[in-house]
Amino acid sequence: MKRVVIQYKVKPEHADHNVKLLRAVYDELERTQPEGMGHAVLRLADGVTFIHIAEETEAAAGGIFGLESFQRFEAGIRDRCEVPPAVQPASEIGSYRLFASSSPAQETQPVAAGS
Prior knowledge:
By secondary structure, this protein is of the alpha+beta class. It has three helices and four strands; from the N terminus they run βαββααβ. It has a single domain, classed as Alpha-Beta Plaits, CATH 3.30.70.
């Protein structure tokens, strides 16, 4: 299983458009239900920093790149970014009920630090 974490910061004027493009990716993932992969995106409290967490099996390697919606997302990412995407390989130490209540069409609001 390959896992990566990707972090980038978009220009403020592109933040909402970035979310719109990402929602289209999740809509297509829900429709096509590809096997062997998982993907989540977090939007930090600053509203412009995004973190993607992705995993895929060898059999599914690169599958997300075949999605039309992901190709549209990728097409303008460099122009939308203030800080370009940094990709880091990652390994799981553990998780507990992570994102259990999330929905692809729902954006949750960040909780203030110390709350």
